[in-house]
């Protein structure tokens, strides 16, 4: 205890002596004392210097860097920056010569390009400027459409600058069904500007669509991709699908209120177009009609056909799009034996009493009876002879399928052709533009006057009459001036547009952006001040429109397929 007392007494004497000696020095003694007392609590500064730079652009999740090589630089260091901003390797000895930073792992879906990263020397200061520029490739978020035998484009750009040296993005198609531009180059000046990647569909001679993935990479590092679906138009004008419905029905189509339409033909056609009755691969592939004959309205008899859905020279394929069933002959009929049987076979109503003449047989009283009081002829899809269409007849209370053929099909160029009507329709309203990448319409639909004056001057001076173009007609001029698909266009008749509206009701995909709450114009003038329009609603309503009032939308039609 005595020693301890001496020590505590001696310390103030020692400090006092030291402070006395500092009187002649221009330093605050209290500050110096505090420094002396606290010096032992401070940690020594890390040895060496830092080497690094800045990370710009996208978050580099998963990025791995390595500092190695050189003379007098110590061992290899690894670093995994997880954010943009400054990054540093620390503790690099002074005098380190010729070291370098390399990217050992690129981020997932992001590519980082490094600059000023080799031959780094530490000489009494930190090294900066080894900067990284990280970016992704922005591609279409939705599936594109590529038309076989034609080309379209997809818009591509970078999310951030690739740095002062620029970068090349490579593209690869997952199938020969679509070829693509090999690469696109981007710089720090144009990285945010969309560039067009050209997609070209190969003509394969069948009706089978394919989904192809277009993949992007930078220096073999995967950068994601997008899908494009091929739209087969190689033989669209001369080829269609045929199938047997999965659902079955008795012989009374005329009275089935669940099917839209005003007669047995319209209701049987609608039954064919129901998605539930189609093979899954044919959902959304246009409009279908029933290969069904009766006493009137629709007849199959050679030389006396009425509203018959087959057309000479059209080849019909089964649901896979590659297997040919048969090609209609000069009489708009199938001759047997056919090339191949249809998948599933089964029994289906036809009303055909005999083949190859396709004479109308028993037909459940034109498909108005669903009881044992009447019989109907049916075909059987298990052989390739005449039994395919005229096997036997049976009571109309029996449940059988229908044999359905495709009528309206998308041509992939903004038009759709109808076998039944032998017409080609615009798929977009006048004023809109067809977009091949989405196979849809862009822009606003316009409205047009039937006639610049509210009288009969545009329809031959007679009432009723047809729009003939001799008077000042904005509608007539709009259609006549269009050169879509290299065709000549006109305003449709009331009957033509009514038929299209019924087809649309069963298969909305044929007209992607139709205005269902408004009337579309026809050529039919009802009286001096009004003309007929069609409303694309469930009942396909006709309505009177004022001739000189620009209230009607316009779908133009072209003769022939």
TrEMBL record:
InterPro entries, per the entry: C-type_lectin-like/link_sf, CTDL_fold, DUF1554
Higher taxonomy: Bacteria, Pseudomonadati, Spirochaetota, Spirochaetia, Leptospirales
Organism per entry: Leptonema illini DSM 21528
Name the UniProt record assigns to this protein: DUF1554 domain-containing protein
Residue runs in coiled coils: none
Domain DUF1554: 265-381
